[in-house]
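Entry 14. Two folds queued back to back today. First construct below, sequence then structure tokens.
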Amino acid sequence: MRLLDSSTLKLKWFLTEHIPAYAILSHTWGDDEVTFNDMTNPSERVQETAGYRKIKACCQQAVADGFDYVWVDTCCINKANHAELSDAIKSMYRWYRSAAKCYVYLSDVSAETHASDQSQHLWELAFRKSRWFTRGWTLQELLAPASVEFFSQEGQLLGSKKTLEGLVHKITKIPVPALREEPMSHFSVDERLEWTMERNTKRVEDKAYCLLGLFGIFMPLMYGEGENATWRLKEEISKRSQGM
């Protein structure tokens, strides 16, 4: 697993048995995200992008919380290496589950710097409509980690999965016990699939791949297979439920 040093912003590879405590970022991708290659030697242009500032803010929060390392999907995976990308996607749920804390950066939610009932009302309206709640991959990023904190575009802490539990439940329709880390196996297949009905992914196949962790399924990734990915996922789920 490749992690980013939260103080030096340098990438470092760790074997599974030696992975240190780390924080993890959850976000929606923008137009100027920082890649693995960008992060190995970030130019001035890269350091001026919103993507880099987002990573830097994540690292600063991790340092404040006492974490030496963070994991960010945009730059901690070498996506040019197809084997590494495939392994990362299949490990994603476990990585979020194992994170000491998950920071959710909401680029479309603004919070006033001064505290007032009106400012809280405004950010709650934006929070309800945030794009983050419509993406397929962010479902596991909400459910897998024990500790999830939500931040506004200014980096202001809005609350946690625990303190905003009622609001998150209303937005996602996900049962409160699931938000409280009750094992996914306690929820039916149909119920878990319902949680994804209004979520979207950029690639058709990711509609299925983003659910692998929620069902504990391991299957080969084959980008280009289209809707067949969903059929294969349901077949694997059926096999598991039948004890095959």
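Second construct, same run, same settings:
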Amino acid sequence: MPSLTLPPPPLRDIQVQLEYLADLPLYKTTKPLQYVPGFENDQRSTVCLNSGPPETLHDVRGAALDDFTLDDNGFKYVKAPTDFCDWNSQDAVAEIYISEMEALLRKEVEGVDEIVIFDARIRHGESSGTKAHDGLHYNPFARQVHVDQTESSIITKIRTLTELKADFLLSGRSRIINVWRPIRHPVYDCGLAIADGGTLKDSDVIECDRMRRDDGLFWDTMGVVKYREGYRWHYMSEQAEEDVLIFKNYDSDKRVKARHCLHTAFDLPSPPPYAPPRQSIEIRALIFTHPPPDLTPNPTLSRFPSPSPSRFSSSTPSSASSPATTPSVVRTLADCLRPNYPSPSPPSSVSPTPLTPSPTSSSITSPFPSSHPHAPPPGGASDLLPESFAVPACGVTVADVALLATEVARLRSLLGASARAGAEARAALERERRRRVAAEKAVARVREVVGWEMVEGEEEGGEDGVVEGGRRT
């Protein structure tokens, strides 16, 4: 009996009004400001939102998903079912789900050399921006057209998370990719709309400073957006747990058509009666493509200052072949100085060194022992999930040499600072010595003066006594 082929479900393009930054004269002279979480309820926030006119959201359900690519559109939908269901545990999410998402990113994103997953958060309608007991984020829906972060904050985040390797990674291609998935049931009431990044203009995104509500300190920058005609919005009707949305928040490569895309939560019209509220999990990952061997700096990032003493040059790799530094020494130093980033296979001229087997590169463990000052607090109560580390393969890479050059520059800077501190300490001791000598001279002078006065008093009082109160005693 021939199998029955069902036609694809009809597309459900809908008309909705999305929330945009209000077109106020204030923003022509003043940078928008948000105090988070809950900026709508904080009078210090200057971000005002207005509903735009009705816009069409095109349903991708039943469409050819291959029509969308990250570089041309800034997003893509993929089928990625998961057996994971322990959504209330950060430890389980970090150990199992994040590993699945790293594998998914390596499969669906081109040019992946390294991945750093730095954030995971669950969203549902009843949340007000809280955390579970073990630190997992619970966030409300973001009903505002936006981009999660702008370039200035992204560069800072890369330097914070990758430390010594930052200059090398920033010389290549850097991307922030989000992986968004409904959990527990399909989306019936509040979906996620995504705008085609290939239709955006550079002027569409306005940088906004975000401050912490609790202490008023700077947090990061995000991109807010005013309405204009021409945005092309998409969504997936009844998006289920296996329907994963991958979208781009940043791309350092200016040659691609879509460097980011806009997104926002929105209320679906006419949800089914008694439909459960939407719940979803969002993973944010830094995706790095290593630079070519000449280590040419990325021109899009050259205007951002580096906190390291000096940027390595393209001539740095030649030092690895000098007679004074053998490949085995370089490999040993690299393994001691860096977190255990994965490395490619060794050159044929370098004999492999056996290493202790470790979990896969997606295992979520800290590189520091519990007693180390940089070790994460017990219980994992942190704003960021732990980073992913793996024991490196043997062999020397360009990244290793660049890492060593950066570390040498840093150590030289520390030695210079120590020398300056020593000189300042010696100068302070010399000043203290001079002060004490001057004080001793002053005391001696006082004693000398007092001694003369006593001698004069004895001469005036004679042999029988001293003069007191104008009479002899």
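Quick look at the second one. The helical segments are 26-29, 90-108, 151-162, 166-170, 327-337, 398-461. The first strand starts at residue 14 and ends at 16.
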